[in-house]
Amino acid sequence: MKNLTQQLDKYFFWVLMFLAVFIPLYPKFPLFNIPLTYVAVRLEDLIIATVVSIWLFTHIFNYKNYLNQTIYKSFILFWIIGGLSLISALLITYSISPHLGLLHWLRRIEYMSLFIIAATTITKTWQVKVSLAVIFTTAILVAMYGFGQILFDFPVISTTNKEFSKGLVLFLTNGARVNSTFAGHYDLAAYLSIILVLIATLFFYYKNLLHKFLLIALGAVCFVLLGLTAARISFFATFLGIAATFLLGGKKWLLVGLIGASLLLVVAIPDLRHRLVATITVNIMGGGGAKYTPPPDKVTIFTPKKAVPSIDGSGQVATSQATESGAVAVDTVPGEPINTTELGVYRSWGIRFDVEWPRAWAAFLKNPFLGTGYSSLTIATDSDYLRSLGEVGILGTLALILIFIIIIKKMIIFLRGNTNFEKYFIIGGLGTVLVILTSGLFIDVLEASKVAEMFWLILGVAWAAMFLRSSEDRKL
After folding, report:
1. What residue intervals traverse the membrane (predicted)?
2. For residue 172, what are the β-bridge partners?
3. In which element (H, E) is residue 12 found?
4. What angle do CA 325, 331, 332 make, to 5 degrees?
5. How confident is the model at residue 414 (pLDDT cuts 50, 70, 90)?
6. What distance in Å separates the CA atoms of residue 273 and residue 266, rounded to the nearest whole number?
C-alpha cells in the first residue's frame, strides 16, 4: 500500500491542478436536482467526491500521522460538531429536512477537504510555483469570459433564483453586473479579491520584467472586472487585503498608490460609485433621493419587452420596463426610493436587518450550543458569522474560528526570519484570509461553492509551502 501511495502521489498533484482549473471555469450547470431546494448536485461535486475518495484510499494507513497534527484535528472537530448539530436538528429542534441537512453538511466537508488534499499533496517548491501559475492562468480565462459577457454577449449561467438555477442560458442586459463563470456577481467578486491579493504580494518576488508585466496586466484586468461587479463588500475587502500585504511586506509607501487606484476605479465605474454613495446616503444616513408616493388616482402602465432571458443590474430577470418618463419599478412600494440603484441598496440592507439576520439570531437562541442545523436558515443569510451561529451554534462557530486561528498563527510564526519565495506566498495567504473574513460580514462566502473550494485549495497550498524548506514537524 505504501508503494501504491507513492506511485499515485506522483500523479495526484496534476489531479489537484485539474481541480484548480475546472472549479473556476466550469459553469454551474445542474446535474440533478434535490427535492425542496433549488440547490443542485453538479459535476464538480462528483469530481471532488471522487478525488477525495482516492485520497482517502491512498492515505488511510497514514491516518495516525494526520491525527497527530493539530490543524487536521481541528477540521475533524468542526465536521463532528456539524454532524452533532445535524442529529440535534433532526431529533430535538425538528428544524430541517434530513436530506437537505445531510447535503449541506457534506458540502461543507467537500469544500474544506481540498485544504487537506492540497496540504498533503504539495511536497516541492516547484509545485507551489506551478500551482500559482495555473491559478493565475485560470484567472485570465475567467476575466476574459467576464468581459466577453459584457462586450460580446457570452452566455450567463446563474443560480441567483429558482428559475435560473435550472441551467438556463441567459444574457446580460446593459448595465448588468458581470458574473463570468461564477453564477453570481458576488461570487465572482470574492474570487477576484483572492486573486488580486496574491498578485499584489507576489509581484515583489519576481524580478523578471516579463513576469512583472504579466502580473500587472492580470491585476489591472481583474481590478476593473471587480469594479464592474459593483460588489461593495468585496471591493472593501480587496482594499483591506492588499493594504495588509503591503504592510506585511514592508511596502507602506504603496498604500498611497492603492488609495489612488481605488478612487480612480470608483470614479470610472458609475454603478460601483452610485452603490457606494447610496450605501452612505440611504443605509447609513437614512436619506437619499425621492421616495415613492403613488398618485391617488393614477396607475403606472408597464409594457413587456421582448421575452429574451436576461439579467438586469440587480441579478433579476429583465422582461419589462416602464413606458412613462419617471415611472418607478413595478414592485416598488410606498416609502421606497424611486432611483433603481438606491432601491437595490435599500432592499439589500433591509433584507439582512429585517429578515435574514433576525432569523439567524432566533435560530441561535433556540439552540445556542449546536444551532438548528445546516439548511435550517434556507439558502442565504448574507453573513457567515450569523449563519454559523444559527446553524451550528457556539460550538461549531468556535471550532471554525479555531481552524483560522491555527492557520493564521502558523503563518505569522513562519514569516519571522523568512525572505524566500514562500514568505511572499504566505503573506498573500494571510491577505486572502483577511479578504474572506471581511467578505463574510455581509455575504455567505464560505458557502459559495466555487469561492470556498478555491479558497481552501489555495490555503492548503500555502500550508504546504511553509514546510518545504523546514525540517520542523507540522505540529504547532
Report:
1. 12-34, 46-63, 75-96, 102-123, 130-152, 188-206, 213-246, 252-269, 392-412, 424-445, 451-468
2. 311
3. helix 2-25
4. 70
5. very high
6. 5
**Among 59, 122, 134, residue whose Cα is nearest residue 468:** 122
SS3 assignment, position 30: strand
Q: What is the CA radius of gyration of the chain?
A: 23
pLDDT band at 11 (very low <50, low <70, confident <90, very high): confident
* Residues constituting the chain: 476
Interatomic CA distance for residues 249 and 82, integer angstroms: 37
The residues spanned by each domain of the chain are 2-277+350-465
CA gap 380, 385 in Å, rounded: 12
Map residue 247 onto helix, strand or coil.
helix
Q: Helix, strand, or coil here: 369?
A: coil
pLDDT band at 4 (very low <50, low <70, confident <90, very high): low
Q: How many CB atoms lie within 10 A of CB 298?
A: 8
Give tens-digit pLDDT for 321-344: 333 335 566 778 888 899 989 999
Query: How many CB atoms within 10 Å of residue 28?
Result: 22
> Cα separation of 59 and 69, whole Å?
15
Cell matching residue 240: 483591506
323 DSSP 8-state letter? -
Nearest partner of 160 among 349, 31, 41, 317, judged by Cα? 317
List beta partners, residue 100. Answer: none
Spatial separation of the C-alpha atoms in residues 336 and 271, rounded to whole Å: 19
User: In this predicted structure, what is the pLDDT of residue 309?
Assistant: 43
- Residue 123: helix, strand or coil by DSSP? coil
Question: What type of residue sits at position 451?
Answer: V
Residues contacting residue 382 through CB under 8 Å, at least 6 positions apart: 351, 352, 356, 357, 442, 443, 444
Query: Is 123:474 a contact under the CB 8 Å cutoff?
Result: no
Residue type, 195: I
Q: Which residues of 272-371 form beta strands (DSSP E)?
A: 302-304, 310-311, 320-322
Asked if residues 31 and 42 have their Cβ atoms less than 8 Å apart, the reply is yes
pLDDT tier at 298 (50, 70, 90 boundaries)? low
Q: Is the per-residue pLDDT at 312 higher than 60?
A: no
Q: Among 4-18, 112-126, 235-249, whose mean pLDDT is lowest?
A: 4-18
Contact between 88 and 367 under an 8 Å Cβ cutoff? The reply is yes
| Distance from C-alpha of 224 to C-alpha of 387, rounded to nearest angstrom | 31
Cβ atoms < 10 Å from Cβ of 191: 28
Mean of per-residue pLDDT scores for the chain = 88
pTM of the model: 0.91
- Per-residue pLDDT, 194: 98
| Percentage of the chain modeled with pLDDT above 90 | 70
Task: Give mean pLDDT, residues 29-47.
Answer: 89
